[in-house]
Amino acid sequence: MSGSRLSRGRLLGAAGVAGALALAAGCDSAGGSGATTRTATTSGATAGAAASSAEDLQAAYENAVRTVLPSVVQITTSADLGSGIVYDTKGDIVTNAHVLGGAKSFKVQLATGGSPIGARLVSSFPANDLAVIKLDSTPGGLKPATFADSNKIAVGEIVLAMGNPLGLSGSVSEGIVSATGRTVSEGGSAGGTGATIPDMVQTSAAINPGNSGGALVDLNDQVIGIPTLAATDPQFGGGSAPGIGFAIGSSTVKRIADQIIANGKVTDSGRAALGVTVRGVVDQNFQPSGTAIVRLAPGGAAQKAGLRVGDVITKVDGSAITTVQSLTETLAGYKPGERVPVTYDRSGSSHTVQVTLGSL
Known about the structure:
- By secondary structure, the chain is an alpha+beta fold.
- The protein contains six helices and 20 strands.
C-alpha cells in the first residue's frame, strides 16, 4: 500500500536525523577533522532520503488525482448541482440523494469533457442519503472508480476530496481521516434528507456545497467514501465548522448501490428499525420526554413485541429516548435481528419488553 510505504519512508528519514545528531554529539566530544567529515556525509544522506520521500509523496498525490478524477462527474438538476462517481461501464453513477432532490432527470458532465449527457433516476435511498442515476447513452472510455473497503481505513490516512465545490469543476482538496464510525444527523431544511447515517468517515479535507456526491480518495487511488456534509457551528449562526466534514463509507456505498442497480431498490439496508412512526412528547415542564407511537408497521418489530399506538418509548437498551432524533440515532447503532430491551410508558405505567429489531 503506497500510503504505508510513504509513512515508513518518513519514519526512516526521522531516524536518520536522530542518528546524525547522536553521531555529531559523539564526534564533538572526541574532536578531530574525521568526525566532521562523517557527520557531513551522514547529514547529506539524510537530506537525500528526505527529498526522495517528499518526491514519492508528491507523486502519490498526483497519481491519485490522475487516476480517480476522470471518474468524478458533475450532476446538474433544474435547481442545483453536485457531484457523482462513475460506478460501472454501463453508465451507472452513484451520488447523494440530497444532490438530486425530487428530480428524475439530470445533465451529467464528465470530467473527460464533451457535451453534457442526459441521465435518469434509477432509485434513491434517503435513509442513507444515497442514490443511483443512469446515463441515457454510454460514451466510450467511461472509467469507473475503484472502491476500497472502508472498514479497513485508519485514522491519520491522507485523503483527497474530489468534486465540484461551488461549481468549480474537477476541484481537489487535501486532508486526513480524522475519525471513523461517526453517526451523523443531516439537517432537512438546507437541502439534506434529514437522515441519521451511521459509520461515517470524518475528514479534515474541505467539503463545500457541490462536493456532495463526489469522491474521498486514499493514496492507493481508491474511493473510501462519498463526501456528504460539513459540520455546522450553531454558535456562529450555523456556519460551517472548518476542517470537520463527513463522508459515507465506501463499503456502505457499494452495498446500497449494488442493490439499487440489481433490483431497482434497496432490499437489505443493514439498518435496524422498530417498525414505528413516532412523534416527540414533552413532560409537565415542557421538556422532551419520549416518543409516542402514532403508527405501527404491520408485522414490524414493535407490533410483534406487543407495543401499541399511544405507547411512549422512553429507553432502548438503557439509552434514554427523549426525541425522535434520539430514537433514530440510538437505532443507528444496531443491526437487524439484534434483540434489545425497549422501555415504554402505557397509561402512566412503565414497561419493558424484548424486541427483535427489523430492517429499515
